[in-house]
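User: Show me an example of a complex going from sequences to structure tokens.

Assistant: Sure. Here are the input components:
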Amino acid sequence: MSKVIKTKKDELKFPKSFTGIDGLDVITGGGLPRNRPTLLVGNTGCGKTIMAMEFLVKGIVLFDEPAVFFSFEEDTAELKLNVKSLGFELDKHIANKKLYLEHIPIVRSKIPDTGTYDIEGLFIRLGEAINKVKAKRVVLDSLDNLFYRFDYTVLRSEFKRLLTWLKEKQVTAIITGETGDSLVTRDGVEEYVADCLIVLDNRVENQISTRRLRVVKYRGSVHGNNEYPFTIDERGVTVLPFIAGAIQQKSSLKRIFSGISDLDQMLDKKGFFVGSSVLVSGTAGTGKTSIAATFAFSVCKSKQRCLYCAFEEAPNQIIRNLHSIGIALDPVIQSGLLQFYYARPTLQNLELHFIAIKEVINELKPSVVILDPITNLMTEGPNSDIRSMLTRFVDYLKLHQITVMFTAAITVGSIERITSDEGISSMVDSWIMVQDIEVDAKRTRSLCIMKSRGMNHSNEVRRFIISKTGISLRPIVVNEKALLSETKRSAKEHLNLSTSKESIGIK
Amino acid sequence: MSKKVATKTTIKVKAGEGSGRSYVLRLIITGILPNSVRAIANAKAICEKYLTGRYELEIIDIYQQPSLALEEQIIAIPVLIKKLPLPEERVIGDLSDTQMVLDGLNIV
């Protein structure tokens, strides 16, 4: 992921209008080009109207810039109702003379055309509307509907005239349009006429749809080039750039105990770094959740807050199960130190999960976040997407000096070559692997530290014991007979079976 | 054609004898732009030829009455609107295609 570094200088150089939309101002380095038109194109249902409307409403509320909205689609009553769910009270702004809505109805049939003409009528209406409220922001949504009524060649030249005219009027404008064979995108008109082009997209992958935004072009300014996922919910549009995160990350020297004293011993006797990311991976039933919950419990006992995001088990089930290893979570939940976020991964797309989690983080201000397990999120989208989402999320947590622990379930037989591990391991600072190994024909849990950046950690594979009193780690004592060659071993098999009970090294 | 087009020019011709239904037409133009100038000339000619003695043609310069653009839901200009007889019909352009005008406005 390329990181775009923005300096104050850029913002001073080029006048911009803040959109007020979360994330979009970060990507564009301060908003849309001031007093110039921006094209916002996308397929049906990707949120053009809402984004455009939010631009206007935020302009009125945050920056006191009156606005005009020309709708070629929905009539004004429909429009008001549709955006009400986002908390936009259009009637109030209209009454205060800060907003003017005008609907230009779609005429299905083409009006007979008897010779040359232009669309001066639209200019006059726009001019009237702008004067009415002294508008600084204008939206035309969506200009494509004009396309069905008039001749393309006329509109094409008129479209260019419209952009120039809007600049002369000194308004910051958004013109929306469809992607594909449409007025604003056909023949690549947008390539040369627009100063700023933003493309929205709504893709369905693995039955989960994700909206994405990309700033294709921004004359005279640097901008984030990537496709950024965005969401629309009751608070409006949120774009997830997480760009700034990585650059401003602080690296702490402080340490945080894992809650398992034997593990802390292995980690240079001090535990994890504060604000680092920890991956606990292992096959099913190796005790990943137990490690995570022990960590959470220890954090809460030291009077710090922890957010536990459970994607597999319901919180009540986790609480019940942990009683069996001597951990009582109820008191720390009641004291508000531990909070659960529980959601089925398939309930919504990953971006929405992260936004929801981010919101909880903002409220709770935890020092530790646990995602258990991260692999469940992987089922609902291509891995590359998830990896980049996760990276951004980790960046965000690091920025806030929050220690994060993921658990990842991996399948038997592919322990080291599993893609999810490869993908995640590069972005984690500490990687703890728990696995089932066979010691003298007996299934034994083992734990080892695959890596732990910046500390002198143990390389030992330890026996990992979960008991009524919690988790402990012991050295593995292997029967020397197990090291015998294959031929000798088969000969010794009968003997082993009878003696194996004594030979297992329980301390 | 004079340099300045009047705000509202109404050419009223009393219905002649046995000429059938009378027409009320409204032509909306933009000042003295070439399209508008041609549209005025064409409109007058068509009315004189096909609606002799039974038409009322009102010519409006939209720059003088900008609010009319909203009232009449006007985008394209020039536009010729047939107000009466109902239903209301409209054609756009400089009216140089006579047949299109007649068909579009249902003038027989």
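The lines above are the inputs; the final block is the predicted structure for all two components together. Chain B is about 25% helix and 25% strand.
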